[in-house]
Amino acid sequence: MENNKISVGLDIGTTKIVAMIGRKNEYGKVEILGLGKAKSLGVHRGVVNNITQTIQSIQQAVQQAEAESDEKIVEVTVGIAGQHIRSLQHSDYITRPNPEMVIDEDDIDRLINQVHKLVMLPGEEIIHVLPQEFKVDGQGEIKEPIGMYGGRLEANFHVVVGQVSSIRNIGRCVKSSGLELENITLEPLASANAVLSQEEKEAGVALIDIGGGTTDLAVFKDGIIRHTAVIPFGGNVITEDIKEGCSIIEKQAELLKIKFGSAWPGENKDNEIVSIPGLRGREPKEITLKNLSKIINARVTEIIEQVYLEIKNYGHEEQKKKLIAGIVLTGGGAQLKHLKQLVEYTTGMDARLGYPNEHIAGNSDKEVASPLYATAVGLVMDGLKRQERKRRENDAEEAKITATETIEPQQTKADGPIVDVREPKKERRSFLDKLTERVKDFLDNAE
Fold first, then answer.
1. What is the CA angle 173-374-257, rounded to 5?
2. What radius of gyration, in Å, describes the C-alpha atoms of the chain?
3. How far apart are CA 400 and CA 421, in angstroms?
4. Contact predicate 79/190, CB 8 Å
5. Which of 3, 222, 312, 351 is the most exposed place for a label (fewest CB within 10 A)?
6. Residue 315 backbone class (left: φ over 0; alpha: ψ -120 to 50; beta: rest)
7. Is the pLDDT of residue 407 over 70?
8. What percent of the chain is predicted at pLDDT more than 70?
9. Which of 234, 201, 204 minimizes the C-alpha distance to 358?
10. 430 phi, psi to nearest 5 deg
């Protein structure tokens, strides 16, 4: 049982791959036992494009995490993002054969499974089906229909779709690294769990996770996820722009961005200059910080505007859908100086930086609480949550079995068949569990 208690998040990003080992301490907080990271070379804009290099990076990160924690990593919870992710709204309904019986989880499962039959574009796969509100016999705004009576059960769904090949490639990488795929989760959802408070999700909030290759967005309102999007730009394009604009090499551009970069050009004086050593005996280059922040500002503004467009698509401008808690920024790109000011200026919404420290135990390494690791922390939390659910289900099953044994004798009545009311409850599996299984099956057959 001991071994079951750790959970491992594997964040396969465009710039870095992070393996993080965590477990719950007695206060219910997540204690981070080990952290390993490796440069990610085989991933472009969140999509694996070189399997061999990605496998090497995964193994490197995993070994580092294992060495730090003395734990052996077997199963991992992997995040999926990338430019192929899109989301749509969909409504569906089922007609129940017997309106005199209360609605139970099987009805909801039937409805969710029906949504999975939606016809997608070729090569696409539904990753998440997230029910929003339910309607029972036309009565709307029901959050939890279980236990109600009714003949027609309908719901609005938030459906997240991704490319089959990309999902399988991630599975292939994990498997070839000698690991088991425990679960696949949408990265914006994982980051959101790590940095948002329940109050923010109720009030309405947009989480913007600025990674190296992609910027992920998750919008919550009334405690439910309402919209997700992945925008195929991130910190790397900013570095590219600096490289092109100043004619310097990438390494220097990245350092400039981190050390001197700012998203707000007004803040640098005209005479602030950085000198960059020339290549191989060439003259050093002089770059004014004002120009540097102009380049950064132009690109960051573009990213924010795209994200803001998605927030508007969700419907932020309608009174009922207003995001009262504003915007939370996380991910490595959130560390850019004066980003918060620029975001507030561009969108007119409040913003704060999101650190994944809300759920982390106090004794964990300070490094872990950086926005850089929000997704990894979220994946660890996701893994732990699933383990707990499994444990609860198993306990419930055991309890049922013993209960049935003790009551068995009274079941035989002569006057016709008796319906045993205590049939074991089917565990309600999220579609992701099914997706993970399908990816696993596919990989096993492909061996």
1. 95
2. 25
3. 12
4. yes
5. 3
6. left
7. no
8. 92
9. 201
10. -70, 155
Q: Strand runs (DSSP E) across 346-421, as ranges?
A: 351-353
Q: Residue 410 has which token pair?
A: 């009274």
HSE (side-chain half, CA atoms, 13 Å) at 421: 2
Q: How many CA atoms lie within 13 A of 258 on its CB side?
A: 9
Mean pLDDT of the chain: 88
Residue with tokens 């704060």: 352
Q: Which two tokens stand for residue 283?
A: 């003259």
Residue 162: which of 225, 82, 84, 229 has the closest Cα? Answer: 84
177 CB-near residues (< 8 Å, 6+ apart): 55, 58, 59, 62
Annotate 189-206 with DSSP letters as a single string: HHHHHHH--HHHHHH-EE
Q: Name residue 317's amino acid.
A: E
Span 201-238, pLDDT tens digits: 999 999 999 999 999 999 999 999 999 999 999 999 99
Q: For residues 168-197, give the mean pLDDT.
A: 93
Please state which architecture CATH assigns to domain 198-357.
2-Layer Sandwich (3.30)
Residues of 278-293 as b/e, b for ≥16 C-beta within 10 angstroms? eeeeeeeeebbbbbbb
Q: How far apart are CA 96 and CA 185, in angstroms?
A: 31
* Residues 240-251: b if buried by 16+ CB within 10 A, e if exposed: ebbbebbebeee
